[in-house]
Amino acid sequence: MTGDAKTLQAIKFDRDNITLDILDQLLIPYATKYISIESIEDAFQAIKLMQVRGAPAIAIVGAFSIVMETYSNLKKSQEKSRTIDDLVKSIHYLITARPTAVNLSNACLDIEKLILKEFKKEDSVDQHTFDIIYQYSVALYDDDLNNNFKIGDNGLRYITETLKAQNFTGPFSIITICNTGSLATSGHGTALGIIRTVFNKLSKDAGEKFWLDHVYPCETRPYNQGARLTTYELNYEGIPSTLICDSMASSLISTLSKQRKVKNLIAPVKFIIAGADRIVENGDTANKIGTFQLSTIANYFNSNSDKESGIKFIIAAPRTTIDFKTKTGDGIIIEERPSHELTTLNGPVLTNNGVGGKQTVGIATPGIDVWNPAFDVTPHELIDCIVTEDENVFVKNSKGEFNLNV
Ligand SMILES: CSC[C@H]1O[C@H](OP(=O)(O)O)[C@H](O)[C@@H]1O
Questions:
Q1: In ligand 1, which atom is closest to the CA atom of 274?
Q2: Of 174, 286, 278, 177, nearest to 230 (Cα)?
Q3: Ligand 1 atom closest to Cα of 190?
Q4: Which helix (H) or strand (E) element contains residue 361?
Q5: Which residues does ligand 1 sit against, CB inside 6 Å?
Q6: In angstroms, rounded to a whole number, what is the distance separating the alpha carbons of residues 215 and 359?
Q7: Which domains are delineated in the chain?
Q8: Angle between helical axes of 84-95 and 102-118 (0-180°, round to 10)
Q9: Percentage of residues in the chain with pLDDT exceeding 70?
Q10: Active-site positions?
Q11: Amino acid 193: pLDDT
Q12: What is the pLDDT of residues 252-289, one digit of tens each?
């Protein structure tokens, strides 16, 4: 379906007719087009191409694709049905689509565990197999949505308590990176979910002593999830925002901290909020490339001002993003993506009467060597708070350690 109806629903799974459609995020914000996912292979390609992206969203689409694969197996009853071993092999293949985000591998391995509890590898895929995977997948979707609203509320509480402790009053701003909203999850979002909740609950007209005045999404080179997706979500919600290049964050913070205007804006940046693709046991966090730099910027401004009046660096993620098997960030595999994502730009031609076909333009010397890691690892030392769906947000103890395993 192609059309201009703005939507934030990244994933559509019809629980009665058993169909799965994903919003093609490579076309956002210029076109709304859903593509059908009917197999694990369809999901692998869509996840690899980043037609769907975002740690929770790729896990949910991955799980639903296994439902679709099993369902189509049952429909082709005349053919020799696949064995459980075949299905498990396909599940392991799906995991390789994007190795850094732990949610996808967690969901796939959970499904493998559930079916191997009930079946032997040589057994045939049957209705019971489908039922097990179906129940798991719809619960994964529903839990993610519920968790995101809890993350929003928990983030609001942390922000409110922080500003009260600082005796802060007036308008404040938030910087965020990549896209961590409805387009990266089952809805509402994680870091952007906190921003949604804070904007709705801490508003000037509600008579609050402090309020969220402005959001600065980083464009998030090279895939531009911020420029394309987060701005689209912020506009959709009517949240005042101004797009910045990733390289502008420190100047933005500095300008506002000196009560100088950014365009006509004066609200100081008080929080940098990012999502996560994998949080390991000590709190080191893999997230979109550029996140680590933002944490060093927050740390600079904190070490050059009274710590308590500085900028808090927040990571927001559901507990499904925590990987207790990996002790420190050194153990995280960082996905490296193709060079053309840095050396070319891909998008529709913008004409006076609308949006034309997709074009690719070169923006670097052809053949230049490129390093294109999709993520970086923010050391836990630079993270002030990890917000999950657990009511108690995670802050470091007096020894500077996170204890996430509670
Ligand atoms: C709630 S989304 C988490 C995480 O996923 C994004 O990566 P990508 O767009 O490459 O899938 C980004 O790192 C977000 O912070």
A1: 15
A2: 177
A3: 1
A4: strand 354-362
A5: 53-56, 178, 180, 184-185, 190, 225, 274-277, 287-288, 374
A6: 30
A7: 11-143 (1.20.120.420), 152-334+376-402 (3.40.50.10470), 338-372 (no CATH)
A8: 170
A9: 97
A10: 277
A11: 98
A12: 999 998 888 889 999 999 999 999 999 999 999 999 99
